[in-house]
């Protein structure tokens, strides 16, 4: 399991690409629960799992959209869309759009989405409103600033960055495709395939364009009085990077300089950001996720502790109220005994019968003998025992009376005033002692969960050197001075945080064998190649077995950890699954 699970070879050996399944759509489009993990659908969109995603059908006044759930954060990327525009009539409209914007899933008047947006819009306009001298269908690009609306009355003439006519793109027998390639702050290229299969026709190229670094990918379509079918067949998104550490813009410029005087072929521009930049983004993204997860777990722990405190206060209030009722009952019974209205049986068959000369006269019935009177001698322990027994008995009688009253009055348990109270003394309602709650690492398995905290996180220390070819700073191994890559395996030393490639770790950081002539030598010890920090944990064996310091704080366990991710590094993997349950349909 490595950072790059799959790459595709480009025309030049220095350029590679990584598929992003978080922003790709392929049949059957939906998961087993009839939902898409990475995309949302809305409007009049129809999903045919074996054929297409129909954004708008060949009927008047239809509009639909599909947008990604997570933003596209790749520095350089390529999006290839297979679509189909078809219909039965000779008059047709209105069109479809491809969006890379900060806004998502907002219906509106422009091809099914909003007319004011921030980001890029690629419009496939099939109906001509007021644009003389232009052949339709027409494909154009607009860069929205969040304030300027789309000029719908003039087919976006005042908003157009670049565009091209695409006569014949409708009702084609071959697959129709659009490929959009972007290099950060360098250029944006759109090419179309509709004349013949595997033949790409350049549409436009926009130099020095800057798109939002965090934007959502989406598609939408709309029909008015005239209509067509607008279908999305497949979407393939790739992250582009340079395997030798060069930037996407530099690689692109090299390809352009080589192709001067030759036919333009944008398919050769499969370039992208360097490995060092990719590794840096991966580490930052992991740290952000870890911090967010840790913060969320701490908030949940605080909520549970607050709820537990509230439950304890409610239990104490219930106990206090029951004690008051029991005391009141005991006083009433005592007064009845004083007035001779009731004979109160005590423990062991003892009856309180009367008072003589200021003393209580009790009828002792111990061992079956009754009628024997004796003087009650005031004893503190005996008095406390009797009070405790009487109070407990009174509370039990009150509980029995309430339970019997709730059963005999009305069996309508849904009436709030008649809802029977639960028995707080039962084992199911007991509030346990305050548990020791700690954040759990989201990457740990269910059978072996492990705790973590901010104090146990390691600060990664990369060694940076200037590349001799590009002149840029690249992250390299401090031992062999080679740039870190997917093949060299970056290893992290704990707790110092230095990063060394795996071949050098196997050569220089293996446990030392025991020396028969030097019993005091450090046999079995492993030290960091950079700072000589002990990594085998030998110096910590004298500490307590719980792995904590004298103040009780958790300590970082020394060792070596490989820096890797599941899948491609852009999507989740493994067996851990976060589930969210709710009502899918409701009448």
In short:
With 587 residues, the chain is of the alpha+beta class. It is built from four helices and 26 strands.
Distance between the termini: 45 Å
Helical amount: 10-25%
Identify the CATH class of the largest domain.
Answer: Mainly Beta
Shape: flat
Coarse structural class: alpha+beta
Nearest-integer average pLDDT: 75
Contiguous helical run count: 4
Poorly predicted ranges = 1-12, 245-249, 255-273, 424-429
The counted number of beta strands is 26
The CATH architecture name of the largest domain reads: Sandwich
Radius of gyration: 38 Å
Number of individual domains:
4
Largest sheet: 10 strands, mixed
CATH topology of the largest domain, by name, is Jelly Rolls
Order of helices and strands: EEEEEEEEEEEEEEEEHEHEEEEHEEEEHE
| Beta-strand residue fraction | 15-25%
Membrane topology: Single-pass type I membrane protein
Subcellular location: Membrane
Biased composition (Acidic residues): 315-325
Organism: Cryomyces minteri
Question: What would the keywords be for this entry?
Answer:
587 residues; alpha+beta; Jelly Rolls; ten-stranded mixed beta sheet; seven-stranded antiparallel beta sheet; 19% helix
């Amino acid at each position: 399991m490595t950072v790059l699970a799959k790459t595709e070879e480009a025309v030049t050996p220095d350029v590679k690409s990584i598929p992003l399944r978080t922003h790709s759509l392929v049949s059957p489009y939906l998961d087993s629960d009839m939902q898409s993990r990475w995309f949302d659908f809305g409007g009049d969109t129809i999903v045919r799992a074996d054929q297409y995603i129909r954004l708008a059908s060949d009927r008047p006044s239809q509009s639909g959209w599909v947008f990604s759930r997570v933003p596209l954060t790749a520095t350089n990327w390529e999006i290839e869309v297979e679509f189909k525009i078809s219909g039965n009539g000779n008059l047709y409209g209105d069109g479809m759009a491809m969006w890379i914007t900060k806004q998502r899933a907002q219906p509106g008047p422009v091809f099914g989405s909003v007319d004011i947006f921030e980001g890029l819009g690629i419009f496939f306009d099939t109906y001509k409103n007021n644009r003389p001298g232009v052949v339709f269908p027409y494909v154009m690009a607009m860069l929205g600033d969040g304030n300027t609306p789309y000029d719908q009355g003039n087919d976006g003439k005042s908003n157009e960055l670049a565009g091209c006519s695409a006569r014949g793109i409708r009702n084609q027998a071959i697959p129709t495709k659009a490929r959009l390639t972007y290099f950060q702050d360098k250029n944006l290229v759109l090419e179309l395939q509709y004349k013949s299969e595997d033949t790409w026709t350049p549409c436009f190229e926009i130099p020095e364009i800057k798109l939002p670094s965090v934007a959502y990918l989406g598609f939408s379509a709309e029909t008015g009085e005239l209509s067509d079918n607008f279908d999305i067949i497949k979407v393939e998104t790739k992250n582009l990077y340079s395997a030798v550490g060069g930037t996407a813009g530099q690689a692109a410029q090299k390809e352009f300089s080589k192709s001067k005087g030759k036919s333009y072929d944008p398919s050769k521009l499969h370039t992208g950001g360097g490995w060092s930049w990719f590794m840096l983004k991966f580490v930052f993204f992991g740290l952000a996720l870890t911090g967010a997860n840790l913060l969320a777990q701490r908030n949940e722990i605080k909520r549970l502790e607050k709820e537990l405190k509230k439950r304890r206060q409610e239990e104490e209030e219930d106990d206090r109220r029951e004690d008051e009722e029991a005391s009141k009952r005991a006083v009433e019974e005592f007064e009845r005994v004083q007035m001779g209205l009731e004979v109160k049986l005590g423990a062991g068959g003892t009856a309180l019968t009367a008072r003589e000369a200021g003393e209580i006269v009790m009828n002792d019935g111990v061992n079956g003998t009754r009628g024997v009177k004796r003087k009650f001698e005031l004893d503190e322990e005996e008095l406390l025992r009797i009070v405790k027994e009487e109070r407990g008995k009174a509370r039990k009688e009150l509980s029995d009376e309430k339970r019997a009253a709730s059963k005999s009055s009305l069996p309508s348990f849904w009436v709030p005033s008649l809802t029977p109270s639960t028995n707080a003394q039962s084992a199911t309602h007991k509030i346990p002692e305050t548990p020791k709650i700690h954040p759990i690492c989201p990457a740990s398995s269910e059978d072996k969960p492990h705790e973590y905290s901010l104090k146990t996180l390691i600060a990664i220390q990369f060694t940076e050197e200037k590349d001799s070819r590009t002149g840029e700073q690249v992250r390299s191994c401090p031992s062999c001075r080679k740039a870190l890559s997917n093949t060299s395996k970056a290893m992290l030393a704990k707790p110092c945080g230095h990063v060394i490639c795996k071949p050098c770790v196997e050569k220089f950081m293996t446990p030392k064998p025991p020396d028969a002539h030097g019993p005091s030598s450090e046999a079995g010890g492993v030290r960091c190649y950079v700072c000589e920090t002990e990594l085998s944990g030998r110096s910590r064996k004298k500490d307590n077995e719980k792995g904590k310091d004298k103040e009780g704080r958790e300590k970082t366990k020394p060792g070596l950890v490989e820096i890797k991710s599941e899948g491609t590094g852009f999507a989740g993997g493994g067996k851990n699954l976060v589930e969210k349950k709710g009502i899918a349909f409701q009448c």
